[in-house]
Amino acid sequence: MPFRKGSFYIAAAILIWSSLGVVIRLSGVPTHVLIFYSALVSTAILSFVMPLKKYRALVPGGRRFFYLLLLGPILLANTFFFFYAYKHTTISNAILTHYIAPVLVALMAPVFLKETITRRVVLSIVVASIGLWVLLGMDPAGIFLKGWQEPGSDAMGIAAGLMSGVAYAVLILVVRAFSINLHPVPMCYFQNLMIILILLPFVAWPPAEALWTFLLVGVAHSTIAPILYFKGMHYVKANRAAILGYIEPVGAIIFGMIFLSEYPGAVSLVGGVLILYSGYLALSKDNEA
């Protein structure tokens, strides 16, 4: 069924993206350099297929082409603010603020995409949010007051996390709007092309020992994952795709266990189970309409 197939594509893309933290940790490359050169690798790969008549015909003209170019800046804003939050507050604060996105999508999708919100979608967001708090082992009630009021607080990091959440929500809405009528390959190509143009003044020649990182991220995270995600968004509504995004922190923990020997406690496992259950609720048969 298209809904289930689209959900599989999105979940696969998110699992790929969830490994990015491990890659960044092992590579030691600055974030903006990694983003630039991975986008460059992806653009080089797709440059072999974009000149083909099949794909040239899929590039929209006029105003729709201008809108297509917005994908890159929105994605870059999402990534920049998220990693800024990582550097200026705790990882828990960064993740929790970033994942206001599903709530924002649930509020905005009916307005901008005319999508209906079911009780099961609302329940999925609530369960996933509770699971995220449990996973991170934190007190969500005190995070913002403590972060903003204490001297030397994490206010800038928390603010960046919130901005990344807003950018993530906008990205989901825009991708959903475009993916209905646009092919994933041109969307991925022009998204990365815009990222290259924006970051070009800020990067230098990369270290040779980081070449494996650029190739891996360029192929997996900047080409395969976006194409899968765009393809999945053709079939899955924005609010359900946003809920699937909660899989990312669970995947990050799994990759951390495998490659970095970082093992979560039993309470974190309970949070992960709640998040996975929220995904089941969002993707159940009642939500296919």
Can you give a write-up of this model?
The chain is an all-alpha fold and about 290 residues long. It has one domain. It contains 16 helices and no strands. Helix 1 packs antiparallel against helix 13 (about 210-235) and helix 1 packs across helix 15 (about 245-260). The model has no long low-confidence stretch (mean pLDDT about 80).
Q: What's the quick description here?
A:
The protein is mainly α and 289 residues long. The chain has helices at 2-18, 20-27, 31-46, 53-56, 63-68, 71-88, 91-98, 101-112, 119-136, 143-149, 155-179, 184-199, 211-233, 238-244, 247-260, 266-282.
Radius of gyration: 19 Å
* Overall shape: globular
Strand residue content: under 5%
**What ranges have pLDDT less than 50 throughout 5 or more consecutive residues?**
none
Largest sheet: none
How confident overall, as mean pLDDT? 81
Summarize the amount of helix as a percent range: over 70%
Structural class: mainly alpha
Order of helices and strands: HHHHHHHHHHHHHHHH
Number of strands: 0
Number of H- or I-type helical stretches: 16
Query: What is the count of structural domains?
Result: 1
List keywords for this structure.
single chain; 289 residues; mainly alpha
Strand and helix map with partners:
Layout lengths: L1 H17 L1 H8 L3 H16 L6 H4 L6 H6 L2 H18 L2 H8 L2 H12 L6 H18 L6 H7 L5 H25 L4 H16 L11 H23 L4 H7 L2 H14 L5 H17 L7
Helix pairs in contact: 1-13, 1-15, 3-12, 3-13, 6-7, 6-11, 6-12, 7-11, 8-11, 8-14, 9-16, 12-13
